[in-house]
Write a structure and sequence with these properties.
about 525 residues; 2 domains; seven-stranded mixed β-sheet; 12 strands; disordered C terminus
C-alpha cells in the first residue's frame, strides 16, 4: 500500500525503538559482510578432493612455476556464499526501478533467456560449417530483416559488438565511401550535446571534430551548422532524439544540408526506443545508424558486455559494409567472409566471427513477442512515462528546456542553489531510498544535470513512488537539512568512497599482509 507521497506504508502497533545498527558480525540482517576472498583462504582447504596426478615429463623448458599460484584455498560453500553475498550488493533491474537515463536499463523478459538457452542455439560454436548452422544464419537474417524494416534502411551490418563499435563501423563506412570517390575530407560536425563516444569515434577515424552549439531550446543551432558546412566535411554525427531528451525537429533539413555538400548523415541510434514504430530513420535521410540492442530490444547490458550494435546503412554506404554478412540463395544461407564479389568494396572485418549470437536471439525473441503494434506501443509508453515524471517533479525541479520531452526527462540543479546540496548529494540520498541514481552531470550543456529515463516497463505505481521519494528528498534539501545529504548514503553496504582517488590510484592486486619480498612490500605501501 502507498501513502499520499507514493511511499510504502508500514503497519505498526507501537513506536520503533531507536537502536544502533552496529553488530558484532558487521552484518545487518540479511545484508551480510564478507571479507575479500583472498582473506578467507586456509592452506590445505579444498572444495574437491582429487588424486595426485601421475608424474609427467615437463615440456615447459625450465619455465615451470616455482611457487604457489597465489589463489586462496577454499571450500565450495565458502566460494558460493562469497559470490552470493557480493551479488546481493548489486543493484539490478530485476531488483528495482532503474532511472538511469542515456543508457536504458530495460526489463529483460524471461522468455528471451529461455529461447537463448534452447538446444541448437545455446550450444553453437562459431567455427561450425555453415551447413550445420542454417537455423542460426536464418535467425541472424530474420533479425536483420526486422531491423531494416523498423528503420526503413536497405542494409545492416550485424557484427559490431556495441554502440561505440557501431559508431566506428558507420564512420569507417563513411570514410570508405569518400575514399572510393577519390575524396579526402577532414572534418566531422558533432553537436555539443553528443554522447562522448561520437567525437572520440570521429577522432579515431582521423577526422577533426568540429563542435556545433545548441540553441536555447536544446536543439542544434541551424545557423551555426550552416556556417560550418563545406567541401571538407565528411559528415555529421547527430543523436535523435538528442541527449537532452528532445526530438531534433530540423532533422530532415540537417540531412539535406549535409548531403548538398557531399557529406553523410550518421545518426546515433542510442535513443531509438523513443521513436520505435513511430519514425523510420531512413525516411529522415539517415545514411548510417547504430542500434543498441540492450537499449531498444531488451538484451542484457552491463559489466562490459556482451553488447551488440548492428548498424543500418543507406544505399550509398551499403557497399562498404564490414564482413562477414549473411546471404541467402538457392543452396540456403551462407556467410560472405572475403573482400570479393558482393563485398569487394567492404572496408573489412571489425570483429572475430559473426557478432553476438546470444544477443541476436534475445532481440529477435523480444521483437516477435511484441509484434509491430507492440513495438510501437513501447515507444509510446516510454515517452508517456518520461513525461509523467517530468510533470510530477516540475514544481520541485527546473526543466532547462520547456515543453514535452521524449524518452527521458532532463532537470538541472538550480532548485538546489543555496542549499549546500549538490546533484551528487541528492543522488547519494536516493541510494538510501532504494534507487540507483539517475544519470548525473550529463549532458554537459546543462549545469548539474539529472537525466531520468524510466523506460516503458515501469507501472504508474512505481513511478508514483519514485516521484514521491524525489519530492521528499527535495523538500529536505530546501528545508536546510544539508548534513543529512552530506552523510548519505547511510544504509548502503559501503558509505561514500573517494571515487576520484580510487580512479586515479587503483589497487589492482591483493597483497598478503605477510608479504616480505620487495615487490609486495612496495605494493603494500602504495596501497
Amino acid at each position: 500500500m502507498l501513502n499520499n507521497k507514493g511511499r510504502p506504508t508500514q503497519p505498526t502497533t507501537q513506536s520503533e525503538p531507536d537502536v544502533s545498527i552496529d553488530t558484532f558480525t558487521g552484518n545487518k540482517g540479511l545484508e551480510l559482510e564478507s571479507p575479500l576472498i583472498f582473506e578467507q583462504g586456509v592452506p590445505g582447504r579444498v572444495g574437491v578432493d582429487m588424486a595426485d596426478p601421475e608424474p609427467v615429463k615437463s615440456r615447459l623448458g625450465g619455465l615451470e612455476r616455482k611457487g604457489p599460484i597465489g589463489l586462496p584455498d577454499l571450500s565450495e560453500p565458502q566460494v558460493l556464499r562469497h559470490f552470493v553475498r557480493l551479488s546481493r550488493q548489486n543493484y539490478a533491474i530485476d531488483a528495482g526501478f532503474y532511472p538511469l537515463g542515456s543508457c536504458t536499463m530495460k526489463h529483460n523478459p524471461r522468455i528471451n533467456e529461455k529461447v537463448a538457452r534452447l538446444a541448437g542455439l545455446g550450444d553453437l560454436h562459431p567455427m561450425q560449417p555453415t551447413s550445420t548452422v542454417q537455423g542460426a544464419l536464418e535467425l541472424i537474417n530474420s533479425l536483420a530483416h526486422w531491423l531494416k524494416t523498423i528503420t526503413g534502411m536497405p542494409a545492416v551490418a550485424m557484427s559490431p559488438a556495441a554502440g561505440a563499435h557501431g559508431e566506428l563501423c558507420g564512420v569507417m563506412a563513411i570514410r570508405a565511401a569518400h575514399e572510393a570517390k577519390g575524396e579526402s575530407r577532414t572534418r566531422i560536425l558533432v553537436p555539443e550535446s553528443a554522447h562522448g563516444t561520437n567525437p572520440a569515434t570521429a577522432a579515431l577515424c582521423g577526422y577533426k571534430v568540429d563542435s556545433v552549439p545548441a540553441r536555447k531550446d536544446g536543439r542544434m543551432d541551424m545557423d551555426a551548422f550552416a556556417e560550418k558546412l563545406g567541401p571538407d566535411v565528411a559528415g555529421v554525427m547527430l543523436t535523435n532524439p538528442n541527449t537532452c531528451g528532445l526530438f531534433e525537429t530540423d532533422v530532415k533539413k540537417i540531412a539535406d544540408m549535409v548531403h548538398e555538400v557531399g557529406g553523410y548523415f550518421y545518426c546515433d541510434g542510442a535513443n531509438l526506443n523513443a521513436i520505435l514504430g513511430r519514425v523510420r530513420p531512413g525516411d529522415l535521410g539517415v545514411d548510417a545508424m547504430h542500434i543498441n540492442l540492450h537499449k531498444t530490444f531488451s538484451t542484457p547490458h552491463g559489466g562490459g558486455g556482451p553488447g551488440a550494435g548492428p548498424v543500418v546503412l543507406s544505399d550509398a554506404l551499403a557497399p562498404f559494409a564490414p564482413i562477414p554478412f549473411v546471404t541467402h540463395g538457392e543452396n540456403g544461407f551462407d556467410l560472405v567472409e572475403q573482400k570479393s564479389g558482393a563485398a569487394a568494396q567492404s572496408f573489412g572485418r571489425m570483429k572475430g566471427y559473426h557478432g553476438q549470437m546470444g544477443m541476436f536471439i534475445r532481440a529477435l525473441a523480444y521483437m516477435q513477442s511484441h509484434g509491430a503494434d507492440g513495438l510501437r506501443q513501447i515507444a509510446e509508453d516510454a515517452v508517456l512515462n518520461a513525461n509523467y515524471i517530468r510533470v510530477g517533479l516540475q514544481d520541485k525541479l527546473n526543466s532547462p528546456f520547456s515543453g514535452i520531452c521524449m524518452h527521458e526527462a532532463l532537470f538541472d540543479d538550480s532548485t538546489l542553489k543555496g542549499t549546500g546540496v549538490t546533484t551528487l548529494d541528492l543522488a547519494k540520498a536516493m541510494i538510501d531510498e532504494g534507487y540507483h541514481p539517475m544519470t548525473m552531470y550529463f549532458p554537459l550543456v546543462v549545469h548539474g544535470a539529472m537525466l531520468i529515463e524510466p523506460t516503458e516497463s515501469e507501472s504508474r505505481q512505481t513511478l508514483d513512488q519514485f516521484i514521491g521519494a524525489m519530492r521528499h528528498l527535495l523538500d529536505k534539501a530546501t528545508a536546510g537539512e544539508t548534513e543529512y545529504f552530506l552523510s548519505a548514503p547511510l544504509f548502503a553496504p559501503r558509505r561514500r568512497l573517494d571515487e576520484t582517488g580510487a580512479a586515479r590510484n587503483p589497487v589492482l592486486r591483493w597483497v598478503s599482509p605477510e608479504a616480505t619480498d620487495n615487490e609486495d612490500a612496495s605494493l603494500s605501501a602504495a596501497s
